[in-house]
Here is the input.
Amino acid sequence: MRAAVQEWNAAGGPPPFVSLVAGLDAANPFVGPEALERTTGARFRVRVGANESAFGMSPRARAVAAGALDRLSWYGDPENHDLRADLAAYHGVDGGQVLVGAGIDDLLALLVRAFAAGGGRAVMPHGSYATFAYHAATFGVALDTVPYRADDHVDLAAMAAQARASETTRRRNLSGDGNGGATVVYLANPDNPSGTWQPEAAVRRFLAELPDHCIVALDEAYIDYAPTAPARELLTGDARVVTMRTFSKAHGMAGARVAYAVGDARVCAGLDRLRLQFGVSRVAQEAARAALADQAFVADVARRVAAGRDAYHEVGRALGLPTVPSATNFVCFDLGSRARAEAVMAALLGRGVFVRKPPAPPLDRCIRLGVGTEAERDIVAAELRRALDVLTELPGDG
Amino acid sequence: MRAAVQEWNAAGGPPPFVSLVAGLDAANPFVGPEALERTTGARFRVRVGANESAFGMSPRARAVAAGALDRLSWYGDPENHDLRADLAAYHGVDGGQVLVGAGIDDLLALLVRAFAAGGGRAVMPHGSYATFAYHAATFGVALDTVPYRADDHVDLAAMAAQARASETTRRRNLSGDGNGGATVVYLANPDNPSGTWQPEAAVRRFLAELPDHCIVALDEAYIDYAPTAPARELLTGDARVVTMRTFSKAHGMAGARVAYAVGDARVCAGLDRLRLQFGVSRVAQEAARAALADQAFVADVARRVAAGRDAYHEVGRALGLPTVPSATNFVCFDLGSRARAEAVMAALLGRGVFVRKPPAPPLDRCIRLGVGTEAERDIVAAELRRALDVLTELPGDG
Here is the structure.
């Protein structure tokens, strides 16, 4: 990152941005459903495009959130102490190993800033969570992307190989700023947007192959939906891993902005020096504690989502569309080509179903449908059946 | 900002931070009242140390916030469109001139990042809002501080002179990264922690003396308490000024995290490329719209605060303590020396009154007391009177 050395436009314009910012594309990673609604003037009938929970939040957390409004004129505790203490107890770690942020996006920004900003390098699966790339770009971090495997899983071996390959470069350039190898490696597990999942043994093999100087942003936003041991378990014992979890998914609190990272205490202490002190709202802090305490609610949501995934796989079979295995609250439906997937997505959007799709091969042949309630899935299935009609109009298709 | 070139600790520690982060002090800008309560094990009786509003939030905004909890499983609109549109209409500007953030702290981080990160330079009043300095440090920005005038006002002439002096350096070093002059100038008006205020004519004179390449972070968090024309008016017509306002003070929503900046559309577009897309909660977005619409509530709060300031000035006269003129929701009480002010603050904290004090001369001779409700002010006045007893025990004092 370089300080501003552009000449200022003397014709009354604003002062110049630093060159990094001046060179950024204006593209934001996501277009919200509200923006699409403003374009069409019509509200979506079903909102299954942002991987939000269809099953609301714990009634106990809801009651606590409502009570917190009585103290909304007070800042939340800048240390997020009580929530951190609860999380530490839940996971069996020390409070210093927990950092709370306003969503995983917030934590991802802190991580790349601490370990790569200003000329570093990062690795991510090509087409995985767009905010990985967004933060890398805005902090001046170069990004190497690694394609998914043909079975739509993250290619962990290729990710590690990419990190090692840039490591060779790093050793050659130890004195150079911004010419080194990758220091940040992004892994969402379960993955978004594929929905696929890697068991702990596979992740441990991946870690064994990673250079020592790499920090791993392990985004476990969807962990509560995964077919694993209790979600309270963490992959621990490796100071290179920062595990990130959120209350935005199974806990149904995406609109509250609260998430946390668990990692080495030294890493957490470093990120703590960068964060917004008052970034997590009082409502979010208090409701998250109640949501954490209501694990029965989370387990029930996970059961409902698993049933919904099964129903979606059945819809796919009935329509002749393969589906991608999912450990999340969404399922990718395989339309066979990017053009077909885009046409079907457009048809669904036009029929009031908010949906998104993976951006990059091989998954760009798919549309991604969130597991809604049973009533929502019925609408989605019916509209998907109708939307397939557009495929007969595609040149070279149908 | 430089990428990591430190040698990695091969003894199993975490990967190295970039050098900027590795070199940061661990000090956070504020210790929250909750942290002090955890230390003593006792809850504060009165909380007048964080400039929070004692008068709650608009009942209409409160009702909207409660309703928003029904949609908390949905992300808020990443564009904050409706709130931005309301703010633009309120101020008579275009939507593109408004940027919404999770508190002014969030907006301040974006601004210094866009205009000075990675080796730039900034100017602020010595001892003014601590988060100015916090963000500058964490983004690798050098900071020049300018003392307050003897009358406890920000020394605008000296601030402009400091910016011009570093401008001379900048011209000599156009090709050097991080060796240039100040590009960011911080001004809180009304000021925190002094409480003093500069009329628009004084700010315009200051702007006329500032170099063209400086961006001004004009923090107007306390504007609703200032003795001025309707708070909807903005200082406009200068692309170097980014005015920041918040719902944390007179609107009584500090715990919700929502604020906004108004500035040149090109500046806002640049900051928009850096922000957290989903950083402002659904509760905050929806409640802020209702709070903005309830200006009668804000005006009533301002009247109550003005009465409370008068009452505090009277308390000062009765106790023989000069008070600093205030255009905010707090009043600085002059104890005569830093040692005396610290002793009285400690006594108040020990008696259950949460209070803070300005950190730097000349204001470090003061303690800063927030305008609470009438009942809270009665407690504060009584405890202040008792706390003054500690002064007789100070060496060389009493």
